[in-house]
Amino acid sequence: MECYFCKQNIKEIDYKDVKTLKRFITGLGKIRPRKATGLCRFHQRKISQAIKRARHLGLLSPTSK
């Protein structure tokens, strides 16, 4: 499986793009592991950082509600 962001040639992950971030969150609100997402190590770190920023600012809820 190839990394989604490497395949799409996306350089930066925006924490304000909630639609993209929701792809990488489970139904319970947890960040999906690298094996499940198929991301490379670099982009998995960036996506988790973006999800945490979005949660902190209230763009994403910390739980599934």
Short description:
This protein is mostly helical and 65 residues long.
Explain what you see.
With 65 residues, the chain is mostly helical. It has 4 helices and no strands. It has helices at residues 4-8, 18-22, 34-37, 41-57. The longest helix is centred in the C-terminal third of the chain and has 17 residues, at 41-57. It starts with a helix and ends in an 8-residue tail after the last helix.
Structural class: mainly alpha
Q: Tally of extended strands?
A: 0
CATH topology: 30s Ribosomal Protein S18
Roughly how much helix do the residues carry, as a percent range? 40-55%
Order of helices and strands: HHHH
Main β sheet profile: none
Number of domains: 1
Distance between the termini: 31 Å
- Name the average pLDDT: 92
User: Any idea of the CATH class?
Assistant: Few Secondary Structures
Strand content: under 5%
Q: Which spans of ≥5 residues are poorly predicted at pLDDT below 50?
A: none
Report Rg: 11 Å
CATH superfamily annotation: Ribosomal protein S18
Count of DSSP H/I helices:
4
CATH architecture: Irregular
Which geometry do the CA atoms define? globular
